[in-house]
User: Fold these one by one.
Assistant:
Number 1:
Amino acid sequence: MNRVTYHDQMKVEYTFQLREVLDTLPDFCRDFFRAIDPNTSAKTRISYAYDLRVFFTFLLTCLPSLKEKTLKEISIENLDEVQAVDLEEYEEYLKAYYHKGELQTNEERGLKRKICSLRSFYAYYYRHELIRTNPSVLIDVPKIHDKTIIRLDAGEVAMLLDYIEHAGDALTGQKKRYYEKTRERDLALITLLLGTGIRVSECVGLDVEDVDFRNNGITVTRKGGNQMTVYFGEEVEKALRDYLEVRKGITPLAGHEHALFYSTQRKRIGVQAVENLVKKYASEITTSKKITPHKLRSTYGTALYQETGDIYLVADVLGHKDVNTTRKHYAAMEEDRRRSAAQAVRLREQKKQG
């Protein structure tokens, strides 16, 4: 029987999840989602669906013709009633609104994604001449301001790994037993993130069969579904081998036999659990930096770039499709390298004193 991977399972879950969301949207939306299916992931389509549901909910309060209507009763003709000023109000609405009694907020990235989702949506129906107007092109897409990259320095990395190895020394009772039960797993997981720069979603999706000690590589499934071998060094190898010895003593729940990393419930560990354990350990090392799995990825990318100076290599290993994405993240470091180049070349020999 063929092995069903984590990513195969997630595709099925996302497919059912998308159907549930689509059932809450106007029926004409299904044409758009069928059209984008070949070129987008299921997760992306779910994000689009959620974004559009927020938009349609806003329209119910914005357009006079929809005052007595429900979400499902919105028609494609109503899209032509929307003007650019309405979308500007929508952009303002997105900054803070309530959904099912809970406050929802969006900063720059959230705003940009929702406006881009809306642009794609309108473009499809306008291109197919199903609507007469496309006001989404008349409003500006929110600008994303670059933020300082938060990462651990070399000393903090060493402190983090040392702490995970020896945190049990200061614990007693149930906390000590829990720590001893998860020590090798946590050390292997965080060492792997720090030593390869893989995404947290790629990490939790790893199967034990994806680890190749002959070549010291792991097979990861990148965004978009492409597979790639990412190589690791001796420290990662040791941490993984130590954990795999412990893993042999775990009897997993049915359907989770292939997972590399298990939760304490003997199931494949989830993204949220990894985020929580990274936060837990990192908070013992630094209180001034909010460290997440993505910050460990940035830590690896920084170290690799400092060692090699090769932005294309960093982009390839991190799985960035566009090297400009990588360059944007490490622009400050490139500036430092350019500055150091000013002192690297001597035009004339220094005259000897005396």
Number 2:
Amino acid sequence: MYLSEQCLFAFRLCRGKEGRGDQDKLEGVSWRYTAIVLLALADEGPEVAKEVLHGRTCAEVCDRLIMHAWDSKDLGEVALTLWAARKLGHAGARGVLERLRQWEPHHIPCPTVELAWALAALATPAGGEADSSLANAIAARLLGSQSTSSGLFSHWTPRGQGGSSWRRHVCCFADMVYPILALSHYHRLTGSAQAKEAVRRCVDRMCGSQGPAGQWWWHYDVRTGHVIEPYPVYAVHQDAMGPMALLAAHDCCDVHVDAAIRKSVAWLAYAPEIETSLVDSSADVIWRKVCRREPGKLSRGIQALVSGAHSGLRAPWLDSLFPPCGVDYESRPYHMGWILYTWKQSVMSHPGGLPSQAMRHAQP
């Protein structure tokens, strides 16, 4: 998925249409996904990185991201670039940190995911200059976006800002994963009891909502913590992002997550919705998600409207009208990046322990 001429990773790989003989093709480029892959490659040997990057080093690709960060209008790109630069011990991390300061993420309305990336960039163990005052301010902002009733984090921070007014009660699985990860590292860095408690509350809700076959559902009601719309279920959540958050909570906040991780990875080995796996060995690809057969994102919109009228209301007829038996035949490089990052970090922390047990349990 790496594009040598652009020195960036593609946005996605799409499967060619069956019956027409079309080839799988790469589409677009992504600065965010490139930064995530660099985070993963930072713990690999230089020869592995050069193989993936077609002869380039991680530092060379990071140079490209750092140059772009100064002109970027995307807080997520800047935060992920800083995270990667610090993880790599890149000398340019200081400049990206200054760019993050200019954004003032602790003041402006922004997506909670991007705020969590900014905190992770500052709190994750790494080399180079950091900013404890900024980290403290971002952590306070992130903690303020957690619901006192449900333990979930709003989709935008501060709550009630940004996004569509009719779906401000909706948060997604990523709004759990990245705050858990960032606040776990922040707790380890500072000893913050508030961060530890926030992680534990969110992990409890996350694991309590896990599907019977290990699914991590997609949309939740931040007011109550209940699932609003379960589908799609994303492969990256099952084998990477979900375990990544839970293992960080385990390492930093003494949270027990073994059973949830086993179920999470087991779903990827066999998804009951499609009676097979998204792991396509013949194509050497993990496809993106199991989804409803529906036009656009209709079910998510309907469930958001219905639950917005009353927190206890849902549209149960969607399962029969739009059954969750479709597959999204695309793959994005951040998925591979988070797989490498998650399990490499975990193996280093638990050699022969939890990760290997979870993977053995999940063998089809």
Number 3:
Amino acid sequence: MDYRRTYIRDILQTTPPAEVSAYGWVKTRRDSKGIHFVQISDGSCFTDLQVVIEDGVMPEETLKKITIGACARFDGTLVESPAAGQSVELKASGVQIYGEADPSEYPMQKKRASFEFLREHAHFRTRGNTFGAVFRMRDKLSWAIHKFFEERNFLYVHTPIITTSDCEGAGEMFGVTTLDMQNLPTQNGGVDYEKDFFGKPAFLTVSGQLGVEAFTLAFTNCYTFGPTFRAENSNTPRHLAEFWMIEPEMAFCDIEGNMNLAEEMLKYLIRFLLDECEDDLRFFNKWIEPAVIETLEHVAASEFARISYGEAIELLKKSGESFEFPVYWGADLQTEHERFLTEKELKKPVIIIDWPKEIKPFYMRVNDDDKTVRGMDVLVPRIGEIIGGSQREERLNVLTQRIKECDLDEKDYRWYLDLRKFGSAPHSGFGLGLERMMMYVTGMKNIRDVIPFYRVPGSAEF
């Protein structure tokens, strides 16, 4: 066996007649008089390959092993198919069963299963249509992200997963320790972290931003793309404890350039998926979100609106809408507000800038009014916020003051302040959550269904 085997995706593009071997997992089997129809998939494309087995070609004992869930290689001749909905089929002359599957126990039956049920069987759910399409698109999206930045000469940086700095200042971080929880060393009434592996409290990172900023002030344009963690006790369809973030950072770039890159990237990624994932998107458009293709085409063709936070508040106040969450200066916008702006008021994607500094992290550049910061949120129809970013505070004295205002320990950010002390430069960046983007481009309604194995409060299975 060789990794260079022919994928079903390529077999389906082969001109018959041709002798081929098809590897995959059995999705369905239907028996008719004197003939057996088997659908197999190897995950390489949305369309299955139909294998036709005539009576007498294989021993009866072998036929019995070709059940839903079984893994096999079918050898035979690729021929034109007389059936509607498929151009070719494999007329089998032989089979090798690699792994049997007892149909009475195999959880992935032909009947439709709920997403809740499939989450309990996440190790098998990728064999079905929905999650096969989800993770093919996740693969293409990840590739497109790297392609986008490579074409623009960004340096790819692997930032640390373990950190001692809280980038967001919210304190919702997972602690990392080798101490014995049943016998903690103490000192002066508290935990003696000098006995811990790193000699100080350490955490899983909530963002790679601070690290990539350091590289940006040497390489100009950089990005990181990796896992991040939030110990936020939110059990909602939009929250995960572990998720992946794309975080570009640019030196000599203000908020205007930051908005330009964010808009350019979203359009690029969406267009890439529309071009490369046509079959999978048609499935989502039919079965998951009827407007998903139309929405993506609209965003890819739109010129994003750009308004200030103050302007957004005024539009919401004048809307006449009965919002669940009240609208006032200083309020963080909720999904209902964001969707109103993008779907009813402006009818296209919106970038909101100049936010109250009290509701944004310490690293955002303070405006001259000392009330707002150069933060930006990119909102899109159907889900609201999809990107958050800002021009970073490059002034040492202002950044030091903001760290104090946010009750953070200045010692933890010594190196971050050093970047402003020695050769500071204006710079900007943003973050895009891969799973949030996946929900948007597929129409999937729960973020747990666009990541291979989800981590949420009370659940870390698989």
Number 4:
Amino acid sequence: MKKLTLSTLIAISTLTLNLNATADDSVLAYPFSADSGKYWQYVSDRVMGGISDGQVTLEQDGDIYYARLTGNVSTANNGGFIQLRAGVSFANSEKDGKNLQGVRLNVRGNGETYYIHIRTDESWSPSDYYATTFKANSDWQMIDLPFNSFKRRWSKDSVLDPKKIRSFGIVAYGRDHVSDISVSTLEFYY
């Protein structure tokens, strides 16, 4: 198994994922590859005084590349998150009159519950995002998370408009725990 630490690469470069998307009739896919590090950023609650600690690595098992977010999440000092995040743009994603309906991930982990955080053009602060949860077990599992399952943190009545999405994060959040989650597939489906 090959392992590359991305923390230094991703801390200095945030690019939009739409540059490397592959598409078929039903999905926009963002495959992990040897170059994926330049599209992702590691962020923790240390940006606001928290003490959570972690890292992101790009790992390879055979022909499969995957991102792995590991670390210790601590709610001390008003903290409580570590995150793997990328800028995205779906402003021109409508196809044949259809909008994107959700995100599909192939994940494995340590049995903990994880979050997807999505920020949009309407997000007015770092804590204003849409979120949903999923559980990552020890075996690889493909999960679909429809956009209508995402709830906005500060405005529960808001509906997530995929054309307004500007960032996407895989997050260990909200409670003291050990994070270990791997993601090998990231697709947005119609």
